[in-house]
Amino acid sequence: MSARGRRSRNALADITTTMEQPDEHIKERVEALERFYVYREPVDSPRQSSSRKRHADPADFLREDTPNCSGDDEDYILRPDKVSFYRTPGIYKFRRRTSTEPQIDYFAHYNLPDDCLLKIFSNFNKRDLVTAMKTCRRFYNIGESKDFWEAIDLSNKTVRLSDLLSIVARGCKVLRMSGTNVLEDEFDPAGVEKCEYYGRPRLTHADFSRAIISSAALEWVLNGATKLQAIALENCEVTPTICRILHNNANLQFLDLSMSRGLPECDLRFLSAFKRMHELNLSWCALDVENLHEVVSNIPTKLSRLSLAGQKDSLVDQHIETLVQRCVNLMVLDLSESCDISREAFTLLLRELQTLTTLSMARCFGVHPMAYLNCINIRQLNIFGCVAEGGEEALRNRLPNTAINVTPYCDIARPTPPPSYTSIWGMRVKDLY
């Protein structure tokens, strides 16, 4: 081993081991070494380390008899602190860089027009667009263009109500919020004022299926909307105020209120305002006999797809008679879990609705199994739980042109029927990347 390797790294230890007869000169040297090699706490940043060096007393360290330290003040100040440098990893990693190049705004220097920036920003997803808007005021004003905020996908996310109102105020047309959790703890009423400042909401397609949102927050979001064409409120709380808001949207074509709460307490006559509605889903809404009487009496006459499943003891033959008189163009009908429908009402349904192609009568135990032999013109027939396995095979043999029990799920007025998952009602909401 070399002499340098055998030499101890601690100069204080080397001196103390060779002290046989301590004198005043050696004691001074030991005290100086103790002051120099005293342990110093690691600093958090180079700025704090420099501040500590500036406030230290140079007289304690710039002594001529202090080893490993020159008498030149500048040489010592430029020397990094050994303990802090080696004990604190990455201490100089995030030091701010100073550029010597001239500060030139190339967008202003080359006079790049806003149209080119709009074309560039149109290829960004929402996250990159927000990052670009934080760059400067010009980028922020360009990023607020309504063309960039027409389609928003917030499904299965957690958002604040004030942020949601700001998004709607920017001109959002297609909004997907299936499974979204809306927080109202930090709700700022200024968001509502901003929405009123920008004008009425431009929403045309809104999906609130299974969203964790209160009825008051839903009223704030939909307040003033008059251009809705499709909306899904599955498993949401519906209030009379929300029904009045929906009543103002005469162009509504798709309405999904399946499993919604509070609908029996509302005035269901608002359904008569939808002259252009094609699909309506009122399944599992806990409607009683009187509610269903209001529904079938005010139901839009141009309906082509209707779901009244899950009404159990509420849907009776009288409702079926009124339904077939008003909706003569029905093509898809779901009456599953309606146990009080008789065979006579089922026969009337098949005779009056000549355009009917898909019929769901799952667990409708009031209809005799032999009545299903009359479904000659039906292409898809769902009768889960109504006939035994042998009877189902016999129906397939007697009705070769009818598919039996092939669609267990109902997609009437649903925003994302399979196989689509990037769009709602045919309107794309997912970004390209």
Automatic annotation (TrEMBL):
Q: Which SMART domains match?
A: FBOX
Q: Where is the composition biased (Basic and acidic residues)?
A: 56-66
Would you kindly state one Gene Ontology biological process term found in this protein's UniProt entry?
SCF-dependent proteasomal ubiquitin-dependent protein catabolic process
Q: Give the stretches traversing the membrane.
A: none
Q: Where is this region: Disordered?
A: 1-22, 43-68
Under the heading SUPFAM superfamilies, the entry gives: F-box domain (SSF81383), RNI-like (SSF52047)
- The F-box domain sits at 106-152
The terms describing its cellular component in GO are: SCF ubiquitin ligase complex
Q: Which domain of life does the UniProt lineage start with?
A: Eukaryota
Which Gene3D superfamilies does the entry link to? Answer: Ribonuclease Inhibitor
What InterPro entries does the database record attribute to this sequence?
A: F-box-like_dom_sf, F-box_dom, LRR_dom_sf
Please state what the protein is called: F-box domain-containing protein
Instruction: List the taxonomic lineage.
Output: Eukaryota, Metazoa, Ecdysozoa, Nematoda, Chromadorea
